[in-house]
Amino acid sequence: MKKRMIYLSCIALLLGACSSSDKTKEYGVTDTKSCDNALILEANKDDLIKDKGSIYCAVDENLSHLDQVTAFVKAGYQAERINEFLKLSYYQDKLTDRYIAYDDQKKSVEDVVTYVNIGLDQPYFTNMDTIQDTKNPLMLINKYHKLPDGYEPVDLTPTPNACVIGEDYSCQSEPQYLVKEVAEAFEKLVEAGKQEGINIKAIASYRSFAYQKNLYDYYANTEGKDYADQYYARPGQSEHNSGLAVDVTLDNENFNEIEKSPHYQWLLDHINAYGFILRYEEDKVPVTGYNYESWHLRYVGKDAAEEITKQGLTLDEYIARKAGK
């Protein structure tokens, strides 16, 4: 705040400095006509950036992002790429150092900011965040965000068209439940499928923490922890613990070969109209942190589902790009 007051109180000096070639040349500024930020050059006496004045003059908004711009300049960035960072609505000042450390200059600025916002610049399960708004159908549950310990949805209702063990192929558990809003949306999806001669069957939906722990521990003990973390979420970090996710199969086919069904494309083309997305896509494994699951549907609400699908994003990316400065 003190720096800002100094800057604002010296506007006259700013204008005068911009018209003085001798003054601005001291800071590496050659085009004095385009320099609107000489005040920063006057205020900042860091020898490392003293000859980088032309970069400051070409950067937008640097009065409000002085510390961030300086970090980029010290890291050797040019004004064009700095501007790309600052113009993003989901760029976060507090993450500037992490953006710089993660940026290999090969990824787009959009991807760098998105992936760091997700947390992918750091090992999984670090800086774990406990979800506060558990009533939000858009809540992000992954390897960086977990549900409160012992969480259980309060409005669970029986899952429509749920499988029956011993009768239906690939049935994983019964009885099954979903959050009421999700169950109602899934029922509409099932009915729409029936109109097309497609039987969309739920093979797994809500799971308790105890169920998820037993599932995870079994594979961690038999296949190893790395395998379990790739294919099975830890308790509290599984979407199934939220009651917002449902695994499906089509026409009683093997669930893990569902994409081979002649009706699978119909499913992908219509789920967003009912508020669902395919959560773990094949080409997004590095983003989601989980293996491809062609059968795992996640409810996020109709508007978000259509926007996520249209933009070709995962839920992780979508949430990361909604973060404000």
TrEMBL record:
Gene3D superfamilies: 3.30.1380.10. One of its GO terms (molecular function) is peptidase activity. InterPro entries: DD-CPase-like, VanY-like_core_dom, VanY/YodJ_core_dom, Zn_M74/Hedgehog-like. This is M15 family metallopeptidase. One of its GO terms (biological process) is proteolysis. Residues 177-302 form the D-alanyl-D-alanine carboxypeptidase-like core domain. It comes from the Bacteria. Pfam families: VanY.
